[in-house]
Structures are given as C-alpha cells and as structure tokens.
Amino acid sequence: MNRLLVGLSAILAGVAIVAILNLTLEPNGLAGRLLVDKGVTESPLGEELPITRPFAVQTFMWIAFMVGLGEVSLRLYACYKERSELNQRYLPEAADVLLTAKDLVPIYRRVHESANELFLSRMIERITLQFQTSKSVDRANSMLSSSLDLFMHEIDLRYNILRFVSWLVPCLGFLGTVIGIVGGLNLAAQQYIANKGEINLALVTDALGAAFYTTWLGLLMSAVLVFLMHIAQEVEEGAINKSGQYCLDHLINKLYEK
Fold first, then answer.
1. Rounded to whole angstroms, how far apart are CA atoms 100 and 108?
2. Segments forming the whole domain that contains residue 85
3. Which residue, 58, 60, 61, 13, is CA-closest to 33?
4. The pLDDT of residue 255 is above 70
5. Which of 19-28, 47-56, 173-182, 219-228 has the highest mean pLDDT?
6. In this predicted model, what pLDDT tens digit does every residue of 177-190 receive, in sequence order?
7. DSSP category for residue 56
8. How many percent of the chain have pLDDT more than 70?
9. Residues 91, 248 contacting (CB under 8 angstroms)
C-alpha cells in the first residue's frame, strides 16, 4: 500500500467526517460542540442561527486522527503480508532433511527471484549467503540473530509517524482549550465594559466549559490511536518472531557442515 495515497485518503476522510457531522448534529448541542464546535448565534430578528466553523480546532483533530488510522491500516497490512509469506514454504519442513551449501542454491534462487522486501525473504537470503561463503553454522546463526535485531529496530522506526500523530492530537486539543479560555475571558471583558460592570456568568461559563471539549476529544482520540498502535506493533513483532522461529527450525537447525 502506498503511504502517500493512504495519507491523502485519510485527509479526505477526515474532511468528509467533519462535513457529515456539521450537517447532522444539532447546533449548540453537546455532541455538536464537542465534535465539531457547532454553535448558534442570534440574528438581528432574535432568531438562533447555527454556526458552522470549518476551520475549528476539531477539524484538524479529525484529520490528524484519520491520518493516524491510515498509518495503523498500513502497519496491519504489512503484518498480513509478513504472515502470508510464511505460507510460501521456502524451506523444507521434513524432520529428516539436512541442508548443505549446495542444497541452499535453489532456495536462495527462489527467494531472490521473489524480489520482495519482506522480512522472511531477506532473512533466508542473508543466512544462505552467509553459510555458502563461510560454511559455518555458528556464523549463520549469528546472522539470524543480527537480522532479527535489525528488523525489530526497523519496525520501531516505522511507527514514528504514528507516534507523532498520537502526540499531535492531544496537543491540538490543549491548543483549542487555550483558545477557548482566551475567548471566554475576552467575552467576560466585553460584557463588563458593555454592561457597565455586569457580567452574564451563564454565557461566560458556557464558553469556558466548551473550551475543554477539545482537550476531552483529543485525549480520547489519542487513547484510541495509542491502543491501536500497540496492537499493530505487537502483531507485527509477532510476525517477525514467527519468521525467526521458522528460519531457526527449518534452516539453521538443518544446516550440515561437511
């Protein structure tokens, strides 16, 4: 899956979600204020008119959240590919088979011709090359251990964008809270000046209460992303462990050094 294509699709999905929520949610209701900051204003005739804020903080939070979900889908798709690679049966699985350097030639050729960048293929390719050049089982085993360490580090690096998005979402929520608090204090100051020292506490407290909605939503979105990230990372690392065990059982333990 192309990361750029998934990212663009996630951004469009975030914009679509915001548009749908603005069309369906009641203005000034709890869900409307919480999810998209949809409020109301008073017309010159005294009627309440809905306010749609397309560039509210929640809009950017939804976009970032969907980008995070797109990254999770990429990682889960990678897990699926790694697990399905085990079904290729690159190595002989019979218990009575021994592998010499000569026997590894067709195995190496098949893996090399697959031309994929999956961990299992790369692992088998490195181990067979190492054994063919050194004729040493110990060095082949060391190559397996080194490859597993490198692959684990590679997996960890692939989650950097998802970690950043998980951090960005609550930061946007805190930013929205600060903006809301500043707006509530400005409203109180305007009322104090306009009403000669009197302040409508109901309006001010409502504005200050709505200011914390973005933090609430940001923390919830971040919790969901972190939860999904840990699940995806656990599954992906499990796929690497299975590939390592497959190579250990059907390659390293069957190498025969003349």
1. 12
2. 3-254
3. 58
4. yes
5. 219-228
6. 888 888 777 777 77
7. S
8. 85
9. no
Output DSSP code: residue 115.
-
* CB neighbour class for 187 (10 Å; exposed up to 12, middle 13-18, buried from 19): middle
Q: How far apart are alpha carbons 251 and 142 in whole angstroms?
A: 13
Give the side-chain half-sphere CA count within 13 A for 216: 12
What residues contact residue 27 under an 8 Å CB cut-off, 6+ apart? 38, 39, 40, 48, 50, 51
Q: What is the pLDDT of residue 203?
A: 64
Task: Single out the residue of 84, 37, 29 nearest to residue 212, CA to CA.
Answer: 37
For 49, phi then psi, to 5°, come to: -115, 135
With b meaning 16 or more CB within 10 Å and e meaning fewer, what string describes 11-38? bebbeebbeebbeebebbeeebbbbbbb
Q: How many domains are there within the chain?
A: 1
Q: How confident is the model at residue 116 (pLDDT cuts 50, 70, 90)?
A: confident
Q: How far apart are CA 129 and CA 141, in angstroms?
A: 12
pTM for the model: 0.84
Contact 131, 137 (CB under 8 A): yes
How far is Cα of residue 68 from the mean position of the Cα atoms in its chain?
4
In the chain, the amino acid numbered 252 is: I
Report the amino acid identity of residue 20. I
Judged against a pLDDT cut of 60, whether residue 46 lies above it is answered with: no
